[in-house]
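Model it.
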Amino acid sequence: MKIWIVLTLIMFFSSVVVAQSASKERIYLQLGNTIITENGESVIEVGGKCGAGEVIGFHIPKKGWFVASVEPFAGYDFQKIGKLDGNRITFKVDDRKYEIISNQPISPQTSSLDLWVVKITPPADKADADSRLISCATDFKYWLKTTLQRNERK
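Modeled.
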């Protein structure tokens, strides 16, 4: 009986340790000086820092927002098509290859990661409909509220 109790306790504590070690570390994305390319041609160049959060997005006029995230969000068609490799994120949407290239590592926690990507076409009356922009946020819901769903116009 004592052996059974000891074995049960060992199994219990080892499962707790495994569960704790399997807990997911929060991954953040950040950008330094950045170039975004579409099929190898530069479409956006921005100096300075952006991040650190779980979401990086960029806007190309007449194409919309392209958002890369460490996780998908319900209600949007996120696809696991992005690849983080050091200072570069690559993905293909609508048969076009996009690259986000930073002059610094994009994640301080990892150099390689699969990312979730979604393309969102905002209404044409938004203030940034004709702008080329890069945006970073701590989370997707915050990004939606502050970037995509705002009502102000320039």
